[in-house]
Design goal:
The chain is of the alpha/beta class. Helix content is 33%, strand content 19%. It has helices spanning 30-37, 61-70, 88-94, 109-117, 132-135, 164-177, 194-200, 209-212, 217-228, and strands spanning 17-20, 43-49, 74-80, 98-102, 121-126, 144-148, 182-186, 204-207. An eight-stranded parallel sheet has the order 1-8-7-6-5-4-3-2. The longest helix has 14 residues, at 164-177. Bound molecules: D-xylitol-5-phosphate and zinc ion.
């Protein structure tokens, strides 16, 4: 039995989930922006960048700890970092709900086991040019597969449709085996691209610019959900 509080409840498996990416927020007004999306955010997507795995540096456990104090949202931490093992405990202590690690950094079996031991949900992420075969060994071990639809590092890039067949492959493999695993897409998700991603099999939709760049972030999130249903 888990001792983690209910704020780490991911919601019903397979339901469409909108995960606003806080990378598109004004970090000096972070909680105000999050409150603007309110109940339309099923998860909050937290982009962690280390300046090594990706050519950008963003935020880490201290910001997750602050968020955790001020919101009950499920904190979906996307770790674009080369050495997640060194930081998983810090993320767990900070109040992360889930950590997603990249297949490009090497074998992830020990990382997944460590995340589980810390009581975290865990996902694997794949860059647009990383094939299904790099994800396959972890299916059945993770709660989430994140298919990047842009090359990670920056918000506001264009959706790469070449990833769609891989999303469908991941979805088919999960459904065939009956794994309890979500399929998440991240990068360039907006009203024009959501339908394709959902038709390919995605259930968790990360969106930064399309939500926080909109005049009314709550309406923008609701519009994305309406497109996806
Ligand atoms: C990119 C990040 C994304 C990014 C998405 O490295 O992983 O989560 O914030 O931003 P948009 O929705 O603007 O493409
Ligand atoms: Zn992300």
């Amino acid at each position: 039995m888990s001792t983690r509080p209910s704020k780490h409840d991911a919601g019903p498996l397979g339901d469409i989930k909108i995960a606003p990416s806080i990378l598109a927020c004004d970090f000096a007004r972070l909680i105000d922006h999050i409150d603007e999306v309110g109940s339309e955010a099923d998860w909050l997507h937290v982009d962690v960048m280390d300046g090594h795995f990706v050519p950008n540096i963003s935020i880490g456990p201290p910001v997750v700890a602050s968020l955790s104090k001020h919101t009950d949202a499920f904190l979906d931490c996307h770790l674009m970092i080369t050495d997640p093992d060194a930081y998983l405990e810090a993320f767990a202590k900070a109040g992360a709900s889930s950590v997603t690690v990249h297949v490009e950094i090497g074998d992830l079996h020990a990382t997944i086991a460590l995340a589980r031991a810390l009581g975290l949900r865990v996902g694997v992420a794949a860059n647009p040019d990383s094939p299904f075969e790099m994800i396959e060994p972890y299916l059945g071990l993770v709660d989430l597969v994140l298919c990047m639809t842009v090359f990670p590092g920056f918000g506001g890039q264009s959706f790469i449709p070449d990833v769609l067949p891989k999303i469908a492959q991941v979805r088919a493999a999960i459904d065939k085996a009956g794994y309890a695993c979500e399929v998440e897409v991240d990068g360039g998700i907006d009203l024009a691209t959501t339908t394709q991603a959902v038709e390919a099999g995605a259930t968790v939709l990360v969106a930064g610019s399309a939500i926080f760049g909109a005049e009314n972030p709550k309406d923008a999130a609701a519009a994305l959900r309406a497109k996806a249903l």
